[in-house]
Structures are given as structure tokens and as C-alpha cells.
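Preliminary data (for renewal application), zinc ion complex.
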Amino acid sequence: MAELDKISVDRARLLHPELRDEAIQILNECNIALTGRAKVRYTYTYRTPEEQNDLYALGRTKVNPDGKSKSRPMGYKVTNAPAWSSLHNFKLAVDIAMLIDGKTMSWDDLKDWDGDGIAEWKEVVAIFKKHGWEWGGDWSSFIDKPHFQKTFGFTLKQLQAKRNICDFIAGTDIVNVRTTAGIKKPVLITTSTVNVRSGAGLDYPVIKAIASGNEVLQLSENRDWIFIEFGKLQGWINRNYLKSK
Ligand SMILES: [Zn+2]
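Predicted structure:
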């Protein structure tokens, strides 16, 4: 096994306890898949609420030298997310870059550094998705290709609500992603045999199939996909195969 990038491992350790080991495992799988000059570097994992607010202030209440002009005296805005509206504040997101020859960074998502016919970025996306992570490159409104997140089915709103009711891992201020306290769970019925997937999309692996006519509980949704609970099973089903009770 090739040695893992220490900076990335250290940053993985700042993630939510449910994601730390997995993020290191993903790094290892990427190391094996990318055999050329490029390796994955985690450029960002946890961002403190204070750091988030500092970023949010740029171009708004704090002058950003970048983009500053007569008509734009505050400079460019750099994010639309104040504290606690970024998954990075919840320790549930990573940003990546390619580290080339251990020295320079690249965000080229089309380059095939190891010559196996598949761009490195694409290989990495597939590995994250295999573990049920969502890719910012799939978003329609604000495409964020370096960004991956895993929210355990919860929407940002639901995570914020958990925070407000202090649904934390015991002894910490980290939101518990294994409880569904305070979450409404409408009952839905499967309208045919349906696949339950690990993420909201056809490119995520199937965990299990559920027969037609079963009752499932809706926990959240993401575009065409509903995050459901079925006994002990949780996963994503396309909304076309569900009806309300
Ligand atoms: Zn990000």
C-alpha cells in the first residue's frame, strides 16, 4: 500500500466521527485507483462557524481586495453560506484537488494522469459514490466539482433543526446523524418492486430491492429521490415508484 497523504489524513480526522475512517478508506482506494502522477488531496474538511462567517463577510461587510472597484467597493462575494449553512460546519463535507507529483495542485477534472482512459476526477467521483457520498458536480444550480458530502439522508434544514434541539453525540456538540428525533416521517407505499440505493441517483449502488405494496417512511428528499426508512434499512428510492398512503 502506497503511503497516504498525511495532510489529507489529518484533515479527514477533523470530520464527523461517522465519516473519519471512511474518508481515510476512500483516500486509500483513490491511491490504489490513481496510478499516475496525480493523488487526491483533501483541501478542506471542517470549517469552523467563525471561519464560515469570515468568508461570508467578504464582499458584504468586509472589503475583499479581490474584485474591489469603484462600482464594487466591497469586492467580490465568495460564498452564499453563512455559519451553519455549509455542510463543512457540520463536518460532513470534503473538498478535493489533485496533488501532482506531490507538489502542485490541479482542479482539472478531465485530465487522465495515469493513462487508463478515465479521467482521475471521474475515478474519484465513482469511489465516493460507492460509499454513498453526494458529489457537488451533480448539482444543477451551483455546480461545485471539488465538493463531496455525506449527510446520512438529512437535508441541511433537518441538520440545523437537530442542532437547535441539541441532538448531539453524547459529550460533544456534533450533530447525531443516527437518530431521527423530531423528524416527521410520512408513510409512503411502493408501487412496484423498487431498488433502494445508497445515494440520490442511478449511479449509486443498489442496497436492496423492496417488493410492491410495502409501506416505507419518508425521512427527507433530494430532487427526484426520497430518503426512506424500511425496518432497519435506510436508503434512496426514486419518487416515481412511491405514492402516499
Ligand atoms: Zn465544499
